[in-house]
Amino acid sequence: MKTVKSQFKFAGGVHPDYNKELAREQPIERLPLPSELVISMSQHLGAPAKCLVKVGDFVRRGQIVGEKNGFISVCVRASADGKVKAVEKRLGPAGAKADAIVLDTTVKPDEGEPSAPDAPILPPLDWRSASREELLKRVEEAGICGMGGAGFPTAVKLNPPPGKRCEYLILNGAECEPYLTADYRVMLERAPRIRLGVEIMRKILGGPAVRIAVEANKPEAIAALEKAFADIDGNVEIVVLSVLYPQGSEKHQIFATVGRVVPEPPALPIDVGCVVENVGTVVAIADAVEKGEPLLERVTTVSGDAVAEPKNVLAPCGTKYSDLVAFCGGEKTAPAKVVSGGTMMGFAVSTLEIPTTKTTSGLLLLSGKKVFQYASGACINCGRCLRACPMGLNPALISKAVDANDIKAAEDAHVMSCIECGACSFGCPAYRTITQSCRRAKNSIRARIAAEKAKAAAAANK
Amino acid sequence: MTIAIVCIAGVGLVAAVVLAVADKYLSVKEDPRIGMVTAALPGANCGGCGFPGCDGYARALVAGTAPNGACAAGGDACAAAVAKILGVEAASTERRVALVKCCGTRSEAIRVGDYNGICDCNVAAMTAGGDKGCTYGCLGYGACANVCPKNAISIADGLAKVDKRLCIGCGKCVAVCPKKLIELVPASATVHVLCNNPDKGPLVRKVCGVGCMGCHLCEKNSGGKEAGHFVFQGFLAKVNYANPPEDEQIVAKCPAKCMSVDPHFESGH
Amino acid sequence: MKPKETTEHYILSSSPHTHANSSVSRIMLDVVLALLPTTFAGIWFFGMPAVWTIAVCVSTCIVAEALCRLAMKRDNTIGDLSAVVTGLLLALNLPAGIPLWMAVVGSVFAICVAKQVFGGLGMNPFNPALAARAFMLISFTGPMTTWLRPICRCCGETPDATTMATPLAAMKRLFAADITASATPHAEKALEQIPSLCDMLVGNMPGCIGEVSAIALAAGAAYLLWRKVITWHIPVAFIATVFVYSLIAGGAPAYAQVLTGGVMIGACFMATDYVTSPITAKGKLIFGFGCGLLCMLIRQFGSYPEGCSFAILIMNAVCPLINRWTQPKPFGAK
Q1: Touching chains, B (3+ CB pairs < 8 A)
Q2: CATH match for A1-33+121-373 among 3.30.1300.10, 3.30.70.560, 3.20.20.60, 3.40.50.11540
Q3: What's the pTM?
Q4: Which pairs count as long-range contacts for A116-120, CB under 8 Å and 24+ apart, including other chains?
């Protein structure tokens, strides 16, 4: 095991105000069980889970309440004991409505004892003797999806399609989003668990080389990982990345750590022999295998200048934002904007009634000093977006095309390669909504492709 | 002088011969019916049929790959004319126009956030589901108005409204609306329910002063369930446009005030 | 009846939720600050006529911008300071002794015709200040090519309105004279009219208000580079092309071609105008090369002694084409 400096630097990227000092020294704290949990069926990328319970049912902690529904999907388990108060459509952070179960956790079970908070739900496995298939099945039934933000089902990622081999397992500990310190605390406090997770994943993936990517502004995390991984055998390296947003982007991390370039969509990291997993996900895998503990809770950074006591909170999935804020001492000042996730890629939400999911890495309450309403001006062609774009696009061109409603021109300018990292809008002196324009173009293009597919399917049926 | 005239005339003659020969030998054989069908279509090139313009639809009609009657703009008369050219039966279509099923204006429906971004409903809906309290209602950022080939849709008081006289029923607005609250309805129907929220009454009332609560009064007043003028989806009344109610009195009796007689916005075009 | 609405709403907007706090007005302010050294140098050498020209151009541009936006029923944009930059740049590209009414006409042309007619900042295909300068050069050829002798403040010479030719005219004659025959009296006389290197660097030579002092212009350009308002590509490509061309073509010394006329101000402040220059680094290099080449071609073969403004304007017209040729390659694209 050795620690190396990243040899590759991608073009573009920006340096936002990181503001990590607000919560970085706060140890992970466990949130007392809230009286109400809202468990969404759509906490991951792909098809939402199929709800298995109805109003009035009593569910046990760890019980499957949502069934995996399709190939790109994961199951959803109850984060705590409770009685189902309602099954209804609830607004998620991204603005889409999905089925959700409202659990009253104050109700005692009709029979038997309440579940202990640390009782194993699945039988613990010895990863050394368990087969690859057993381990993969465990990841799947634990309901694990990528916890960095996108929420891609981990079992699918760990099972490359035939003909493709994983040569590098890359652990994403970059955490380049401003404010967020959840992954940092996990690396600092749970480095041995990360090591265990790596060993399990290495077995599942057939022994790839391991690269652990951490940004240079987290020396304590690097030291903790070095200590935990000191005596590991095989090809394992900690790669120290320069501090640059978006180092945490999958494609850019692959380039920064192993120098490989993922081709344009629909190509995936596995096409260049890489699998990237967030460090939080790796801990979840270790817990699922060794302790038999499915993914029921996660660390979320509650921060921002409008929250009284910024903290890194270990909370059950389905905790309402209002409960997280209350646990962190409430609001210091009235927030002007509430963001689920980090400030570069997170979602602004309209209410604190929204629940956390498996992918909620942060909740930020920002006062009027940090955010404001803006009016977009005309593009002055300054080229800042072009220099900032880590994907090498011409965001100015795309945003002008979208302004003119010319989605075809945006498509020709490779808008589908856009990773929506926000670097373009961040530096735009005219305050143009470039990232949103890209979203709009991508949305229209996806809608058009779906419509064409539906048309072709209808024609084929005839 | 004479030389100039002779030269020009000579060049003209040679060019004319070349053109005549080219016309004879290079001409593309085209079904003459394509031109006739194109002439019978309205020529608005709205794309509502799903083909690239009227010419594209005409080609598909002659090739037999498109059904007759897909042209909403031309309506029955057009379908009949096309049927005559192609020698097939004409399917009867009634003229249909777009209806925006929401009447939650800024003064009636609450907003839950200050939206700051591109003025387009689809992107606004991707931002926390939109700034309107009612997640089923019209956001009023004009995605429909932007795609309307006839400028028949205007935005007033945070709400899209269709000018019935200009609408050709191409359905582009129906496809683009992120809330799926625009429907093509028979132009002859006069009684409409202007709400798209299937939630229970109390929930609707929390976000909008004029939302349907599913009280079934419209159904009772129009002759009960047997009359079949209304269908219900959750707690939302919907006019059964196959059998629309004709009694306009029931509109005034709606306690939620979400019904309307011919709500089509009459602009001064 | 409307249900009760919570009074405090959160802002809903698409990510990112943080900003670098750059703004158009800040960029324009930086350009104005960068132009201050050369502005003061111009005032130092040309005295009150320079002050009046600058004041008239800047104020006319601001008023014209406000009136245009009013007439077009658009929001007022004088706050973005782009009109100030246009006015200042135009003034710095005029001879100090120009009649003030001509400066007014030029400023109105710059804002109304060259900028607002196209839709305002960001839409204009040509650099407004240069378009106005070209317009004035054609319309008022006499006054636009009458240069004041710089005031010699050290030797206590009283400012008078004596005029003289710019070194450019002499340098043009040098092109015409065969280099091998540079000993001829004709060429000798022309060489005498070229100021010393020191005078050229400081700005002690006839010329437009803002183009004479190379040191002041370089200081301004350095500030813009440090503030990351401009990149090095256009100035370096422009100046290097001029330098190499004159090395090859002969005539006046290469450094004289760079330091006289509008090359310095053109390369650092006019050609780097965002709106009318290419957006990619590669495009900027092509643009700078084209500017330098055209400028020297006009200087050698054209009927005007100076070709910098026309060179940049021609390259402005080619800019959309360059942008099309030099689209960036996406990360991961074949």
Answers
A1: A, C
A2: 3.40.50.11540
A3: 0.88
A4: A117/A33, A117/A61, A119/A61, A120/A291, A120/A292, A120/A293
